[in-house]
Design goal:
Structural class: mainly alpha
Shape: flat
Largest sheet: 2 strands, antiparallel
Number of helices: 8
Order of helices and strands: HHHHHHHEEH
Distance between the termini: 57 Å
């Protein structure tokens, strides 16, 4: 009985550790964005400290996960929570690294800014909101809301495309701003990747809560309206997951070999 209580305590502590790491990741990306917007360069040191703290937390939680597996041999939903926690901290650590990448770019600006740039602050605001939400869904095991992160990611992708086109227009108008324009595009790309990591967390939450591997691409596939059509669609999806596609021969190489080259 004591062992079971101790195990429950360890699982509760693990969730708290991941939640705290999620808060550090949120602060890191939030401060990095604020640095770009305001030019307050003292924030760069704070982002760097948060990045290092996130890395230390990743190592600590990783050890905690291995200890739980070794000492308590969790099964079923408990094992899923431990394994998902292990994967989520990797995503959170990467978010911290992207925050640092954004903070480093800030020095390039040196007070230079485009007069009109609405999409980037909007994109940053939405991305910053996705990070704590994804961790909250992990804490509560909310698979329904976790799936919706991908709809929000579609909006982020659209904003990235808008920013890319916007930057090209400004750079064509004033070639002297090509360098700063390229760095704005990099910032938008880093923010887009942060949103992708939030979606990774959401996908892992769905698995943790349901025990099923969910393919986010399924949400965009057109499902037939009739009952027979739905059953046929489900069989095709199941078949595509079980049977890997054979590589296509192209000359002397297979398709996957060409991709590697």
């Amino acid at each position: 009985m004591a062992t079971r209580l101790q195990f429950a305590h360890e699982m509760e502590e693990l969730s708290k550790e991941v939640e705290e790491m999620g808060e550090l990741a949120r602060l890191a990306i939030e401060k990095a964005v604020k640095l770009i917007v305001t030019g307050d360069y003292y924030l760069k040191d704070e982002v760097r400290k948060l990045d290092k703290e996130l890395y230390r937390n990743e190592l600590m939680i990783e050890r905690h996960c291995t200890d739980i597996i070794a000492l308590y041999t969790p099964v079923a939903s408990d094992l899923r929570r431990v394994s998902v926690s292990w994967k989520i901290i990797e995503d959170l650590s990467r978010i911290g690294r992207y925050a640092w990448d954004i903070a480093e770019i800030a020095e390039v600006f040196d007070g230079q800014k485009f007069k009109k740039l609405v999409s980037l602050p909007q994109m940053a605001s939405q991305v910053v909101g996705m990070v704590p939400d994804s961790v909250d869904y992990y804490t509560t095991g909310n698979a329904v809301e976790a799936r919706k992160l991908f709809d929000r990611d579609d909006e982020i992708d659209e904003l990235y495309d808008t920013i890319f086109r916007e930057m090209l227009t400004y750079m064509f108008e004033d070639p002297k701003k090509i360098t700063i324009g390229i760095h704005y595009i990099l910032i938008a790309r880093y923010l887009e990747r942060v949103a992708d990591h939030a979606c990774n967390i959401g996908e892992r939450v769905v698995y943790m809560a349901t025990g099923d591997r969910w393919d986010p691409a399924d949400r965009k596939r057109k499902i037939p309206a009739s009952k027979n059509g739905v059953e046929e669609y489900q069989r095709e999806v199941a078949k595509s997951r079980k049977e890997p596609t054979r590589p296509t021969d192209v000359g002397d190489y297979h398709q996957h070999e060409l991709a590697e080259k």
